[in-house]
Design goal:
The longest helix is centred in the middle third of the chain and has 28 residues. The protein has 16 helices and 2 strands. The protein is globular and about 60 Å long. The protein is about 75% helix and about 0% strand. The mean pLDDT is about 95. With about 325 residues, the protein is mainly α. It has a single domain, classed as Farnesyl Diphosphate Synthase. It has a two-stranded antiparallel sheet with strand order 1-2.
């Protein structure tokens, strides 16, 4: 079994070998830029790690893994425009470094290139992999639309929010693991358990992101703290705060959400103070642990020896203990 570091080295070498010196330069330079920012490379790593549970030749799944990573970064380009985000991974977002039209068009071509890489999947499982990938791509768009819809609603429920982050974030983790297993010729039941492992890990992962957006450190998190608060995003934190808050806390929270003139840093500070009084951090940590434990149960059900699953276990634990 390859270590996580060995897997990342394979992925980085492949991504860095892609020649983006193409014309028109204004279309491909932003793609090279966003991929050079790095990131966790979590999704392609999961693809190869799942494959490695059943196969010694992870290179058979490499093209699919790269396709998944390029697709993920395409979604970030468009997501940053919709969220009006200035910073990604500690650097200017593409629409800030260039402009929105560039970010839209470069993102569009990234999606096409992602499919070109997926098309290099071994022929015997290409149809199945392509179907899973396409279904997941559509689900991510569903999740993004729900996220935008929630911005206009005050009464989003916890269940609705969890379904949204499942579609927007978790399904791509599940897809990555499932595709890697399929290429490794895993049994159908094991592919499904790995998909569920990815879904539950993805839910815990996004909830951790929600938490870090409020209580993280800007230098390590890579983007401005409190961005979700400023955008009134219906995160797990805000949804629960709106449900729990009573009296003055509820009045102040609603005022802060509806006020157009309040200084941004003041809004962030006052909302965090309300979250602290309502113990929202502890509530969120409990939810994270719930889905983390469910993910471990799924991984335990995969029918390979425990020693082979150890690296996935370590990765899952590190993801939930991260500070960025």
């Amino acid at each position: 079994m390859k270590t996580f570091e060995e897997i990342l080295e394979i992925i980085d070498i492949q991504i860095n070998s892609i020649d983006w010196q193409r014309k028109p330069k204004g279309l491909y330079e932003p793609i090279e830029y966003v991929l050079s920012l790095g990131g966790k490379r979590l999704r392609p790593a999961l693809t190869l790690m799942a494959n490695n549970l059943f196969s010694d030749n992870v290179l058979l799944a490499l093209s699919s893994a790269i396709g998944i990573e390029i697709f993920h970064n395409f979604t970030l380009l468009h997501d940053d425009i919709m969220d009006k985000a200035d910073v990604r991974r500690g650097k200017l977002t593409v629409h800030k470094k260039w402009n929105e039209n560039t970010a839209i068009l470069s993102g569009d071509v990234m999606q096409i290139i992602a499919y070109q890489y997926i098309a290099k999947t071994p022929s015997e499982c290409l149809a199945e992999v392509l179907n899973i990938f396409s279904t997941t791509a559509a689900q991510i768009c569903d999740g993004q639309q729900l996220d935008m819809d929630f911005e206009k609603r005050q009464n989003v429920t916890k269940g609705e929010y969890l379904e949204m982050i499942k579609l927007k974030t978790a399904v791509l983790l599940g897809c990555a693991l499932q595709i890697g297993a399929i290429i490794g010729k895993a049994a159908h039941i094991d592919c499904n358990e790995l998909y569920s492992f990815g879904i539950n890990l993805g839910l815990a992962f996004q909830l951790k992101d929600d938490l870090l957006d409020v209580w993280g450190d800007e230098l390590t998190f890579g983007k401005k703290i409190g961005g979700d608060i400023l955008c009134n995003k219906k995160t797990f934190l805000l949804i629960n705060a709106l449900h729990i808050a009573k009296g003055k806390d509820k009045q102040e929270l609603l005022f802060l959400l509806n006020s157009k003139n309040i200084i941004p840093d003041e809004k962030i500070q006052r909302v965090i103070e309300i979250f602290n009084r309502l113990k929202i951090k502890e509530l969120t940590e409990n939810e994270i642990n719930f889905y983390y434990k469910k993910s471990l149960e799924n991984l335990d059900n995969v029918s390979v020896e425990s020693s082979k699953k150890e690296k996935l276990l370590i990765l899952a634990k590190e993801l939930l203990q991260r500070n960025k």
